Amino acid sequence: MRSVPARGDHPVTYLTDVEGQWPRLQSFLTGNPHAALVDGALVGRPHATLVFGGDAIDRGPHGRRIVRLLLDAKVRQPDQLVLLAGNRDINKLRLATELTGEPLRRAP
């Protein structure tokens, strides 16, 4: 494994656990020098990376809106946005199977 030195000219900003709460996302982005909401879209500043650490959905009413925002940003700026799955996101992956009434093949 190779170590990569930190670069002062390439900042990284990290957001996680918004859990469907739009005000939490807005609060993080207000005044953030590396990422912003511009005309309803998430925009990373040039030469900066936004890492989203997961848990976009679950508790608040804006989960779908937040997921759409993140996916749109990933399509527009694929090299500037890193999307990670959080434990709440991973737990939702089995939801489609559970809703069909089919038993799980094995316990998660």
Quick structural summary:
The protein is of the alpha/beta class and 108 residues long.
Describe this structure in words.
The chain is an alpha/beta fold. It has helices spanning 22-29, 63-76, 87-92, 95-99, and strands at residues 12-15, 35-38, 41-44, 49-52, 81-83. The strands form two sheets. It has a three-stranded parallel sheet, with helices on one face. Strands 2-3 form a two-stranded antiparallel ribbon. It is elongated, with a radius of gyration of 16 Å.
Distance between the ends: 31 Å
Kindly provide the radius of gyration, computed on alpha-carbon positions and rounded to a whole number of angstroms: 16 Å
Q: Total number of β-strand segments?
A: 5
**Structural class by sheet pairing and helices:** alpha/beta
Q: Based on CA inertia axes, which overall geometry fits?
A: elongated
What is the string of SSEs from the N terminus onward?
A: EHEEEHEHH
Assembly state here? single chain
Question: Low-confidence spans: pLDDT under 50, at least 5 residues?
Answer: none
Mean pLDDT across all residues, rounded? 88
| Tally of helical segments | 4
Strand content: 15-25%
Helicity level: 25-40%
Largest β-sheet summary: 3 strands, parallel
What order do the strands of the largest sheet run in, or round the barrel if closed? Answer: 1-4-5
